[in-house]
Structures are given as C-alpha cells and as structure tokens.
Amino acid sequence: MIMIALLVVDVQNDFCPGGALAIPDGDKIIPVINKLILEFDHVLQTQDWHTLHDSSFASSHEGKEPYETINMYYGEQILWPDHCVQGSRGANFHKDLNATKTELIIRKGFHQEIDSYSAFFENDHKTMTGLTGYLRERDINRLYMAGLATDFCVKWSAVDGIKQGFEVVVIEDAVRGIDIDGSVAAAWEEMEQIGVKKIHSNEILSDLD
Questions:
Q1: pLDDT single digits (tens) 20-74
Q2: pTM
Q3: Of these residues, 10, 27, 48, 160, which one is catalytic?
Q4: Which one from 48, 82, 153, 160 is the annotated catalytic residue?
Q5: Measured torsion, CA atoms of residues 62, 65, 66, 68, in degrees rounded to the nearest 10
Q6: According to the 3-state scheme, what is the secondary structure of the chain?
C-alpha cells in the first residue's frame, strides 16, 4: 500500500526575493505549494535554523567571501551569506505559505560546526534528523517534495530519501534553484540517475482526485 506525504523544503523569507540568500522567483512556487497542501493528508516542512556564527557563513571565516569553498572535517563546504539565523525574520516561513496543515517541522543547520542541507541528515551524512523514523512509524513510503532550493536542500533531501528506502518524487513547478555554475541541471541529472521521479503539479492533482 502506498502512503504519501508532501515535504515542503525551506520556504523561508531569506530564500525568497528580498532575503539574504534570495533564490530567483523563490516566492513564485508558493501558490503551487498551497494548492498541493490542500490535497495531502500528511504535510511536513523543513526550516533552515542557523546559529549567529555558523561555520558555513562566509562571515565566520576571515578573508572569505560568499560562495567560496573551504574544506571542513566532513568535506567541501560552500560558504554562504548569513541567512536563516535563529529567531530572525529571515528564518520565518514566508507569510503567504499556508502551513496550517503541517504536522512536523524539521529544523536543520542548528549545529554551529556543521551545515545541513538534507531533511534526513546533516552534511556529515551520519547525524540523522529523525525524519526517517517519523515516516516509517507512520508507514509513509512515498515523499513528494517541493520548495527551495532545487540544487541544494531539495536535491540532498531527495537523494537521501532514496537512500533511506523511500520513493521520492520532486514536483518540478514547485521548486526553484540557486544555480551556481549549472548546479540546477546537474542536480536534476543526479536525482534522476538515482531514481528520483519528476512530475508536474497538475499530474499529482489529477492522480489524487
């Protein structure tokens, strides 16, 4: 039996136009997501939730600029502008997102010494968020994903979801990417190679009717 859930990734002010790490047209997906939310019995969200001096911020490394890379103990790390700091307006969910039905919020990135893109693991690929257990205890085996950004938190969540044994479907008109040197195209290729399916929201809505 297929049990499904919608996972809405990081639809927060700092990732939308005017935010500290704004994704082009990041807010344009919100009407699509709101429409989808009404059709799902289980809705989950992730929320980027960084400390003030997070090690993934360029400002935490003297002489470094945003989008440079450094080597951390867990591998290569892109340095970001300060964003989604705990308790800040930028960390809040976008006001237009209808989060009423959300039953679980996974906060990630709150460990100062390690960044976190995936809804399942921190960037060391070992420290779990608890999402796997939550889904398994509720017999949810297929995740539909929407949100920001295609080439980072959505992609990492989708890939880890497959590795954890779930079916994963990314809703192509309900995601947007940062796109650093072609990273969006590379993300779609990586996801498809590992078995992530891509679908348009209209296809989902017709299936669920």
A1: 999 999 999 999 999 999 999 999 999 999 999 999 999 999 999 999 999 999 9
A2: 0.96
A3: 10
A4: 153
A5: -100
A6: CCCEEEEEECCEHHHCCCCCCCCCCHHHHHHHHHHHHCCCCCEEEEEECECCCCCCEHHHCCCCCCCCEEEECCEEEECECCCCECCCHHHCECCCCCCCCEEEEEEECCCCCCCCCCCCECCCCCCECCHHHHHHHCCCCEEEEEEECHHHHHHHHHHHHHHCCCEEEEEEEEEECCCCCCHHHHHHHHHHHHCCEEECHHHHHHHHC
Q: Work out whether strand 197-199 and strand 142-148 pair parallel, antiparallel, or are unpaired.
A: unpaired
| Catalytic residue flag (residue 160) | no
Does residue 84 carry a catalytic annotation?
no
Cα–Cα distances (Å) from 146 to 7, 114, 116, 168, in that order, read 6, 24, 17, 11
- In tens, the pLDDT along 130-184 reads 999 999 999 999 999 999 999 999 999 999 999 999 999 999 999 999 999 999 9
In terms of C-beta density within 10 A (0-12 exposed, 13-18 middle, 19 or more buried), how is residue 2 classed? Answer: exposed
Q: Is 153 a catalytic residue?
A: yes
Q: Which of 108, 115, 151, 160 is catalytic?
A: 108
Q: Are 147 and 119 in contact (CB under 8 A)?
A: no
Residue type, 102: T
Q: In what order do the strands lie in the sheet with 4-9?
A: 102-108, 43-48, 4-9, 142-148, 167-176, 197-199
